[in-house]
Write a structure and sequence with these properties.
This protein is of the alpha/beta class and 279 residues long. Helix content is 37%, strand content 9%. It has two domains: 180 residues, 3-Layer(aba) Sandwich (Rossmann fold); 75 residues, no CATH class.
Length: 279
């Protein structure tokens, strides 16, 4: 492979994959890029910088930055750790331009990350062909659409080259002198609507202030749309979470009509499906 683009999400698996590639693809031209939405946790931003410093690698930071000119698709700007948005500015630009993303209009990953990243990569490689490395593990391989991977020159080194599972990843990070200071269920995007109800309720219990921005966007730009399942606001989730009792088991994403009767467990949050933003 001549040109390799590493899609660096800021998660543990993505970071390990980056470490693996820079150690084993020494004959390739490697580009590492991270797309900041403005709603990544500060711990994620600190971790991305720590990977760059500790491993002596260049990680390019970009953000979604739409242009007014119709049809112009290079919608990104280059930032760094110091200048990166921390109050959801790129995310709000997307909402103003299109709509509030949710399960019926799942635009945020593609608009805020995938498209800006690949437009940046095309500019960096000056139109040359490149392969995109994606951090999916062997124990997650069922998520791969191989026909799409072939069509788009995606490859999955932690599946095909060096198969690893979640346990291996966690053991690797025990050997490093820095870490991602987040619980696994917190994820990179602080209140991602793709998280299960169980995760959202847990976050609402532990850090209810994280939902303030999402409710502000709801008020300013909602236009009848809602981020969260069941047309719920952040305040609704916080209120629902007050009725959740730790340790009582139920299906994590059951539609709740009577919160007193259907309780959600906060156990085993690690084993729920991750959003692609966290890979």
């Amino acid at each position: 492979m001549k040109n390799i683009f590493i899609s660096f999400s800021g998660g543990l698996t993505s970071a390990f994959m980056t470490h693996y590639i820079i150690k084993n693809y020494t004959d390739s031209n490697i580009l590492i890029a991270f797309a900041n939405t403005g709603k990544e946790r500060n711990e994620t931003l600190d971790f991305v910088r720590a990977c760059s410093i500790n491993w002596n690698i260049k990680i390019h930071w970009i953000e979604y930055n739409p242009q007014q000119k119709h049809g112009f698709k290079n919608w990104f700007k280059v930032v760094d750790y110091e200048s990166a948005s921390r109050n959801g500015e790129p995310f709000e630009k997307l909402i103003i331009k299109e709509a509030l993303p949710n399960s019926k209009f799942p635009s945020c990953s593609s608009r805020l990350k995938e498209i800006p990243l690949h437009n940046f990569v095309k500019t960096y490689f000056k139109g040359e062909k490149y392969h995109t490395a994606i951090g999916i593990r062997w124990d997650e391989k069922h998520r791969i659409k191989w026909s799409k991977a072939k069509e788009n020159n995606f490859f999955y080194p932690l599946v095909t080259d060096f198969p690893v599972d979640k346990k291996f990843i966690h053991n690797f990070w025990k050997t490093q002198n820095f870490k991602l200071n987040l619980k696994s269920y917190e994820g990179n995007c602080c209140c991602c609507w793709k998280k299960s109800n169980r995760k959202l309720y847990t976050i609402a219990k532990e850090n209810p202030q994280l939902f303030d921005w999402w409710d502000e966007m709801q008020k300013k730009h909602g236009k009848g749309y809602y981020f969260f399942r069941g047309n719920k606001t952040g305040k609704d989730l916080i209120e629902d979470a007050k009725h959740m009792k730790d340790g009582q088991k139920s299906k994590c994403d059951t539609k709740i009509t009577d919160l007193q009767n259907q309780q959600l467990s906060f156990f085993d949050l690690d084993n729920e499906t991750q959003c692609t933003c966290n890979l």
